Prior knowledge:
Elements (H helix, E strand, L loop, with lengths): L1 H35 L1 H11 L1 E6 L6 E2 L5 E13 L9 H8 L5 H8 L9 E7 L1 H9 L7 E11 L6 H4 L1 E4 L2 H6 L8 E4 L1 H5 L1 H5 L3 E7 L5 E4 L13 E3 L3 H11 L4 E6 L6 E7 L13 H9 L8 H4 L9 H10 L9 E3 L2 E4 L1 E4 L5 E3 L1 H7 L2 H11 L1 H10 L21 H8 L7 H5 L10 H12 L3 E3 L4 E5 L5 E3 L4 E3 L4 H16 L15 E7 L7 E8 L6 E7 L9 H13 L19
Parallel strand pairs: 2-10
Antiparallel strand pairs: 1-8, 2-3, 3-4, 3-5, 6-7, 8-9, 10-18, 11-12, 11-23, 13-16, 14-15, 17-20, 18-19, 21-22, 22-23
Helix pairs in contact: 10-21, 13-15, 13-16, 14-20
Amino acid sequence: MIGEVSHSESRKPVIQFLVIFVLAVYISQLIRLQIFNHTELEQKSMENSMKAIEETPLRGVFFDRNMKLLVENTPTYTVRLIPAEYRAKSDSLLESIMGFAPGTIRSIIAKNSQYSSFVPLKLKRGVEFEVIGWIEENIDKLKGVNYIIEMQRGYRDSIMASHLYGYTKEINPKLLEADKYYTPGDLIGYNGLEKKYEQMLRGTKGFRYVLVDSRGREVTQDKARMLAAIKGKDAVLGIDADVQRVAEKELSPYVGAAVAIEPSTGEVIALASSPSYDLNEFSYFTPKEYISKLYSDKEKPLFNRASMAAHPPGSTFKILSAIAALESNVINENSTLGCAGGFTFGRFFKCHGHHGAINVVHAIEQSCNSFFYQLIFKVGLDRLADYAHKFRLGRKTGIDISEESAGLIPTEHYYEKIYGPNWPKGIMVSLGIGQGEVNATPLQLAFYCALIANDGKSFVPHVVKGYLDENKKLVPASYEEVNTGVSQKTFDLVKKGMFLVVNGGGTATNIKTSEYEIAGKTGTAQNPHGKDHSWFIAFAPFDHPKIAVAVLVENAGFGATYAAPIARKMMDAYLLKGKTGIKDYKIAKMEVPD
């Protein structure tokens, strides 16, 4: 017994030491936390009640070449939800006020479940002010719900330019994965310039930090930690608002397209496709009924005919045949070919006149089919294709919008693949006058005309001239130079023929004007599915070209009758700016075949 007591007594100091040691550790930790780390812990406590709110930057806007505002940002309310803070019991109340069907909010949260629950989800854009007022008054019942003011696109100057601008819409999951800049609900550019220049236009996001109370209400802001959003860069376009407006108006009764280019720079002055669609419907919420209507429309208003519709260019292609022949020395300015009303190669190919012995200049003026039927055999398909490619025909021009067709310039290899080595040479007859398999877009023909106007030199066609820096000064964009290498003598000859088309005895004298001199070429392309397509290309003024135009009117008829008057009005809008009496006049229709 005595031994046991002494053993117990011997353990007392050890136990006392352990108790004192543990108490000392706790006391030292309390002293450290309360005195030495007080500031750090207070900061962490504050951070637990601080909320980082992402600030979306203003998107860059579009100006025309004369600094008229074309596309702007207009304010709209957006309601958001933070899943980590939101309570499901609020579903029915929130869905009712937002006009959602039951289960909509659960569906939105489920679709975005792969993202952090602290990332705000945008429930609806373009919310009415009355709804925002109700949410503000009842915010304590809607934990995790807030709203922000965002910007949606607005369009000015009575111009739609739908296929040119493109539009913005909510980003999809695939694009979210590709670029960490975006969060669910962000807007991103789709189609046209909005897509091509997304990174320039979108700006840099910012953040503001707010202190919230136990109910999630904002108490104050931590201004020291704020990071301001940086607005996207404003783009200056080569577009002329007046010319674009005229192109859209004049095309509106038809299916077709029109493109105008500045010959010396390659800047696109106008680009219109008809029928078009209303970009305002894509600003924030696009009704399913409107989308269905666009997709079901047989005229395909979403299709950009200016850069995508590839059709036989008809007689506008004769100038290319002439250039290839002159540069290859198979003809010269004095060479003549006979026209007795047509040309026979296996069968009789008709010409619309009896032009007799005719040289290249007057063959262009009179649009003599017989001359060019024969010329194609002298030039050959491969040589013709080579010169076509120099003028960006049969290949994409490289324009800075997201949609473009390459068209087609057939070669001997092309026909060998279809028919074999003994392909029928009679096919070549139609190619000489821009019929058959040869195809080009209005954009390609406008640039082709611009290169002719500027003696074979220009820059890749482009819509954006540059952007404005922080001092509102233009920072020019750079583009590839294009040089066809064609001689000045050849250009002088073909341009003389184009001048006579309008100012001599040619096929477009109905658009002749005393205000300035126009050089052009009509084209009527055969269409196996209906009426012929109407083409016209032109540049003006003749001596110092400032604008080159290509107009296509599908299923209409002669180029002089439908396309040429539209081109004339576009050139008037550009060259006679500020003058009166040029908007409502009528140009006589000219039923002259070419």
